[in-house]
Each structure stands twice: as C-alpha cells, then as structure tokens.
Design brief:
Elements lengths: L12 E3 L3 E7 L4 H7 L2 H8 L4 E7 L8 H11 L6 H13 L19 H12 L4 H4 L5 H13 L7 E4 L2 E2 L9 H8 L1
Parallel strand pairs: 2-3
Antiparallel strand pairs: 1-3, 2-4, 4-5
Helix pairs in contact: 1-4, 2-8, 3-4, 4-5
C-alpha cells in the first residue's frame, strides 16, 4: 500500500435491517470478546434483513496494548477485505487474548513486547497482513472518529450497547442472544 494513495476504512457494519444494534468494543477486553462472539448468532436470530449491527472500537487504557490492537483492527478495515479483514483480526485477538494482554493489566510476558511484535503476532494469528496498513500516516483520523462517536454518546466502558441510537445499560455481554433479540422487538 502506497501511503500517498487515498485509503478508506470500511465501516464495521453487518446486516441491513432497519433496527440498529451497536456494540462499542475494546478488542482485548474479555467481555467485549464475548459480545463480539455473539454477533453472527444475533444476525441469524434477529434476521440480517431486520437488524444492522455496527461495531465501534472503544480503546481502553487499562488494556495496555489497546491502542495498538485497536489501530490494527481499523487498519485491517482499509485492506481489500475491508470489514471482513477487521472481523478476522477481532476474532484472532479474541482467540489469543493472552498474547495481546497483560496479567492484571500490569504484568506478564507482554511487559517486554514491542508494538512491532504485537503487530507481528496479530498478523500470524489472523492471517491478515497489517504492518503496512498500520503505518498509514493519517489512519488516526478514523481512530479519532471512533473515539469521538463513542464520546458523543457518553460511552466510557466496553462493551456498551445501543439500540437505535440510545444506550441500553440493561444489555450485557453475558446475556443470551435471545435476550438481545427480544430487546430489538
């Protein structure tokens, strides 16, 4: 990818229905991983023609490599696979969380890891070539868009859920998909 070539981040949106179910996720957060893992089941149960699921990355500073991993997800969305590349990166992080997280948010093997090593691990786990897209100089404009959107909606933690533009604090990552579907009706 030539860094002078215009790029576009593919929106992290699946389904095409009139009801909007939004998830604000931090890629290394175990609760966000659990919520993300229910996305396909939600689309199947609610109907992709009845619900649109939109993901917004919600970087959290207590997850020490959150910024690096979040940038990787968004970088993946600029690649030819677009949102599906981003989905593959999110799934890889979820399946290998310990490789991207710290013990008790402050210790463990990742204390010696560099951002370059984290990117390489994520490339190996996901099969998505991220390093060049990660280095897009103005990729932060899309990262900031995610951040501003979350802030304007009062989102402070992950995961947080919104239905049709309203935060629904009763929804949790531990809920059954059937409970999410019921809230959409």
């Amino acid at each position: 990818m030539n860094h002078t070539t215009p790029w576009r981040a593919d929106p992290l949106v699946w389904g095409h229905g009139p009801r909007l179910f939004e998830m604000f996720l931090e890629p290394t957060c175990p609760f966000s991983v659990r919520a993300f893992g229910k996305m396909d089941a939600l689309l199947a149960a609610a109907g992709a023609d009845r619900v649109t699921v939109r993901l917004t990355m919600q970087s959290q500073p207590w997850h020490m490599y959150s910024g690096v991993v979040t940038r990787c997800v968004i970088a993946a969305s600029t690649l030819p696979g677009g949102r599906e590349s981003a989905r593959a990166v999110l799934a890889a992080v979820g399946a290998h969380r310990e490789e991207f997280e710290f013990a008790h948010h402050c210790a463990g093997p990742n204390m010696d890891a560099t951002p370059r090593q984290i990117i390489a691990r994520l490339e190996a786990c996901s099969g998505v070539a991220l390093a060049e897209a990660f280095a897009i100089p103005d990729l932060d404009r899309e990262i900031k868009r995610h951040c501003r959107y979350a802030r304007q909606n009062g989102i402070h933690v992950s995961p947080t859920f919104m239905i049709d533009g309203l935060v629904d604090p009763a929804i949790g990552s531990g809920d059954a998909v059937a409970d999410w579907v019921a809230r959409l009706r």
